[in-house]
Structure formats: structure tokens, C-alpha cells
Amino acid sequence: MPVDNFYWSKPWRKFRAHMLALRPICEVNGCNDKATQVDHIRAIRKGGALYDPANSRCYCKSHHSMKTASVDMVLNANSRLGVRVLGCDEHGQPLDPAHHWNKK
Asked: Are 6 and 44 in contact (CB under 8 A)?
């Protein structure tokens, strides 16, 4: 199943509802907003576990959008466009897909 269709699947919707019930407040330090989004810490496209609570975080819409824009979208778009990206993710890995640490 393509990743985009995964998020509409019944198993994902069930897992998402379970996670939001367990973690109803945004997991960003200092944010007390209601969590409405469940995010994979390690992206599915990079081998992240689909239904593992340890690979999931619950965010408010604002923080999920910021995380997606700063990490996921940057990596996906720039790897196709050949654009260099400065900085590192939360684990210290370079965001630039062309960085030698990201080469296989």
C-alpha cells in the first residue's frame, strides 16, 4: 500500500485514535494544547514501524506542521530538487540528503 493511502486505512485510524487517547496533550515540551496529530518519529519511507507507540508522537496541529515542514518535507522535496539543506534533525543527523553521512 502506498504511504499516502496508509493514512486512510482502518488499522491506522484505529492506532491513531488509541495513541491520542493515551497521549491527549501535545508532546512538545511546554505546549499544553490538545494533541490532534500522530506522527512517526522515524518516517515509514525510512523504515519506521507503522504501529509502534515507541515510533509515534502526538502533536497539536501547529507543532506537527512545523515538524513536517522542517524535517519531512525538506528531506522529501530537496532530495528531488538537488537543493542543499543546512542543519541537523533532533538526533544530530544532517538534514541534507547529499551530506556524506547520509550516503550509503
From this structure: yes
- Mean pLDDT within 83-98: 64
Alpha-carbon separation of residue 44 from 33, 36, 60, 83 (angstroms): 26, 19, 20, 23
Residue with cell 487517547: 21
75: how many CB neighbours lie within 10 A of its CB?
19
User: Taking the model in full, what pTM does it have?
Assistant: 0.65
What is the full DSSP assignment across the chain?
Answer: --HHHHTTSHHHHHHHHHHHHH--B--STT--SBP-EEEESS-GGGT--SS-GGGEEEE-HHHHHHHIIIIIHHHHHHHHHT----SB-TTS-BS-TTSGGG--
- What are the structural domain ranges in the chain? 3-102
**Residues 6+ positions from 48 with CB-CB distance below 8 Å:** 40, 41, 42, 55
pLDDT of 32 > 80? The answer is yes
